[in-house]
């Protein structure tokens, strides 16, 4: 479950949907590899975290200024309260 969110992107609705599609596509493609499948998933996750820290959807959103569901949330700090 964490793999799906990390790959797709956190904080959006689109991210986990994209992550799910990627996860199931990789699982079906690499199913014949046995335990190497898990190493490939781990390597894929590491590469994605290094190259696209916001996930696949964050990369697409930033690059093409595209947003399907503009329902993301941001945590705002109250400036009247001290640190």
Automatic annotation (TrEMBL):
GO terms for cellular component: plasma membrane. InterPro entries: LivM-like. It comes from the Bacteria. Keywords: Membrane, Transmembrane, Transmembrane helix. GO terms for molecular function: branched-chain amino acid transmembrane transporter activity. The keyword Metal-binding does not apply. The chain crosses the membrane at residues 6-26, 33-50. This is Branched-subunit amino acid transport system permease.
């Amino acid at each position: 479950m964490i793999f799906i969110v990390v790959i797709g992107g956190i904080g959006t609705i689109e991210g986990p949907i994209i992550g799910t599609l990627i996860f199931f596509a990789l699982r079906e493609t690499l199913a014949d590899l046995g335990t190497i499948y898990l190493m490939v998933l781990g390597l894929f996750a590491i590469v994605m975290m290094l190259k696209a820290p916001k996930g696949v959807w964050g990369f697409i959103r930033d690059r093409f200024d595209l947003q399907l569901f503009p329902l993301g949330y941001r945590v705002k700090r109250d400036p009247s309260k001290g640190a």
